[in-house]
Amino acid sequence: MKYSVPRGTKDILPQETPIWQHLEAVFRRVFSLFGYQEVRTPIFESTELFARSIGTTTDIVAKEMYEFKDRKGRSLTLRPEETAPVVRAALENNLISPDNVTKLYYIGPMFRYERPQAGRQRQFHQAGVEVFGSNSPSLDAEVILLNLELFKGLGIRDLGLNLNSVGCSKCRPNYTKNLQEHFKENIKNMCEDCRTRFEHNPLRILDCKNANCQQTIEAAPASINTLCDECRDHLNELMKFLKIAGVEYVINNRLVRGLDYYTKTTFEITSNALGAQNAVSGGGRYDNLVEQLGGKAIPAVGFAVGMERIVEILKKSEIRNQKSEQGIILFLATMGEEGQVKGFELLKEIRSLGIAAEMDYLGKSLKAQLKVADRLGAKYVYIIGDDEIAKESGILKTMATSEQQEVKFELLKEALK
Questions:
Q1: Mind telling me which residue stretches traverse the membrane in this protein (predicted)?
Q2: Checking CA distances to 286, which of 18, 32, 353, 369 falls within 20 to 30 Å?
Q3: Which fold has domain 17-171+227-316?
């Protein structure tokens, strides 16, 4: 029987992994530049953690989570996003407090049962940050700048920034009431999901992608028109800091994000290099989530980047992706049993210097081994046969120029250095 990769997942093969390694290396460098430290949480968590944080009426919780029971009947879920697990880890390990700013980042796989499409899989990868301890709009601005700096570090330029505020517990009820008034006349003509959202959380209707619902959604009232003074001041201050940083943005009244925990700032970064699904990252402020999950009232802000979509952009663009791996420097072409033994001995010595090296294990002819070395991109080939064993020296060949020179076995390491 021949097995296939599960629908909605994919193998990341050797020809593509250098792009991923480069992407991760750039992200880690930029995160460190901004003072962030890495946190790694388990792949699965208690189902209740996500239901409580993301919201039971969201598509993620209602339709997309991979939930299962363990042997003791406890409900566990493969993480569909990473903010709630990071908050859980930060609380459990006393990483955050009201009088400190704590900056954390993560890189890893997430899981959602979605319809697979370009740049969107059921197992997908996200990189993101979570910052705890400050409600300053300047921190929102820094998080957005960090997000943009990730793309700048990769050479990606053609981006757009969408910005909005969804208000807080004081002003959002007024906005919810306005949405209910707007949608009640047309809700019977909208999709089943929208009708359910109308009953439980009208704000979620703005997330609907159904074409038949878009005209009614486009005419919906804007959240920024019902903001309280505190939320309005926060948004104005954020826009001021973005202006100081020279960052252009567009106010998007429909941007509420697909998670219930957001308060005040929401933002999304889009790329013109993708199609209709053009969002490459998004985030916002979630000042109530830490308290909601059992901690003190500590404000927070963060974002997540969809890494598959970034890989798609890098593949399509003219950007030359740097390889994180060094590549093969030396290929040892050996002939005969004694040549192979000596080659194996030298291979260990060369690698101990931090020089990437390889040799033949199939007993191929010299001509075939040279072809292998060329395919691997080796800079040099060191040839060892019976004659070389007798002279205790091999032939070092520079592949780019075909220049050859005789080098004693004991001097090979020095020659390479």
A1: none
A2: 32
A3: BirA Bifunctional Protein; domain 2 (3.30.930)
